[in-house]
Design a protein that fits this description.
About 60% of the residues lie in helices and about 10% in strands. The chain is of the alpha/beta class. Strands 3-2-4-1-5-6-7-8 form an eight-stranded mixed beta sheet, sandwiched between helices. Helix 10 (about 225-240) packs parallel to helix 11 and helix 17 (about 365-380) packs across helix 19 (about 395-405).
């Protein structure tokens, strides 16, 4: 998402960078480029009009025109206005002071309500909550079964009364069950339609009036583009939603919905779905998203991903091994797995400052090559993993046969490992020398 928008905005900013001082005519020409970039990204026309107007008014002020680096000031203003457009601060899920917190999930059919109900339940379970999933979709074939399957995968119970009971009674029964069983959160997976209709809205209004949910979250497919705004407006007018979950942000979408929904509804984007896995959901941070759009990276999200996937004890053990130069192929495999658990490499690269979100779109990352690396190491004996220097020609043939790879693949892996090992040894050697130099004045 946003690859195309990021590239077009970067081209618009180049027009400013080529100027020493800016005139109002320069600003007007650059704003036209920004306006076209936003419209092509499926941002709502009214949003684009007001957004460009605000930037233009700020850009023709003394803050920019009298600046020594006007191009940087323009980027700063666009960044600030993007953040304002998307909500300024992270909007957290409201937790009821009197359990259970009832979260009503609404949206069109196929938007991802069932999956994201499970994703949210799994997220809050990891935070120490005791969630309950409620199957309130009695119309879509196998909807109840799907919720039960994903509930089982994340270890969260599912409340169901079958498909012959009204959704209102199921929702009411789920809340009562949560009170009896000690569940402090209830996620109501409601039915969707292929389009917004009065019957759907009336049913959702009845569920809302019966259980008085703490949150009403609209699950909306970012791939809808301009239609996302119309859908959000319709649901908000009838239900007064409290927030939005944007799904499929990892897909080939122009991203206009992320920049339009809050402006049109006045309701914040609270979460974003970034993949198919049940842990592929993140809180929405307007400032971080603005940074990604402008190619500034997202270091905070990168650090959080690392903290979630890297074991602290293992990290301390790795640090000790690096100091003692006892880094072996077991450690190499462990680090390999932990980095891979952080997610697709192209997504991670997009969080690094200076790397544009679309920089790796033409780079083919062969997942099979990653699997081969793991297979080769696992085909080695314990002794071979601890002492790679033991691996001679005959051992290489055996390892290649055992991992379903070639001797060339084994040689390539061993060369990579040797390079990494040398780098670590140089690093620890330099660290040791610097420590000695620091101690010298005190020992004289």
């Amino acid at each position: 998402m946003f690859d195309s928008l990021s590239d077009k905005l970067a081209n618009a900013f180049k027009k400013f960078r080529n100027k020493g001082k800016l005139t109002e005519a320069d600003v007007k020409e650059g704003m036209r480029e920004i306006k076209l970039a936003l419209l092509e990204a499926d941002v709502n026309f009214k949003v684009v009009r007001d957004f460009v107007k605000t930037i233009s008014e700020r850009a023709v002020g003394t803050e920019v025109l009298e600046s020594l680096v006007p191009a940087q000031q323009i980027v700063k203003i666009v960044n600030e206005e993007l953040i304002r457009l998307m909500g300024e601060t992270q909007a957290k899920l409201e937790i009821s002071s009197k359990p259970p917190t009832v979260v009503m999930m609404v949206g069109l059919q196929g938007s991802g309500k069932t999956t994201h109900s499970a994703k949210l339940a799994g997220m809050y379970k990891k935070q120490g909550k005791h969630p309950l999933l409620a199957a309130c979709d009695v119309y879509r074939p196998a909807a109840i079964k799907q919720l039960e399957v994903v509930g089982e995968q994340i270890g969260v119970p599912v409340f169901s009364l079958g498909d012959s009971v009204s959704p209102v009674d199921i929702a009411r029964g789920a809340v009562e069950h949560a009170l009896r069983s000690g569940c402090d959160m209830v996620f109501l997976d409601t039915a969707g339609r292929l389009h917004v209709d009065d019957t759907l809205m009336t049913e959702l209004e009845n569920i809302r009036d019966a259980v008085h949910p703490t949150e009403i979250l609209l699950v909306i497919d970012a791939m809808l583009g301009q239609d996302a705004v119309n859908v959000a407006q319709s649901f908000n007018d009838r239900l007064d939603i409290t927030g939005v979950i944007l799904t499929k942000l990892d897909g080939d979408t122009r991203g206009g919905a992320a920049l339009s929904v809050r402006y049109v509804t006045g309701k914040p984007i609270k979460f974003v779905g970034i993949g198919e896995k049940l842990d592929a959901i993140e809180p929405f941070y307007p400032d971080r998203m603005a940074s990604r759009i402008l190619g500034m990276g997202d270091v905070l999200s990168l650090i959080e991903k690392a903290q979630q996937n890297f074991d602290e004890k293992k990290a301390e053990e790795m640090e000790r091994k690096l100091r003692e130069s006892t880094f072996d192929l077991n450690d190499y495999l462990e680090q390999f797995r932990q980095v891979r658990n952080m997610g697709p490499l192209d997504q991670i690269a997009g969080m690094i400052p200076g790397v544009k979100p679309g920089a790796l779109k033409d780079v083919q990352i062969d997942e099979r090559a990653l699997a081969r690396t793991e297979a080769i190491i696992l085909a080695m004996t314990k002794k071979e993993r601890e002492k790679p220097e033991l691996i001679n020609a005959s051992r290489k043939k055996r390892i290649a046969a055992g991992s379903g790879t070639s001797v060339e693949d084994v040689n390539r892996l061993l060369r990579q490992f040797e390079t990494v090992s040398k780098m670590f040894k140089q690093f620890t050697s330099m660290s040791g020398k610097s420590k000695k130099r620091m101690k010298m004045p005190f020992s004289l």
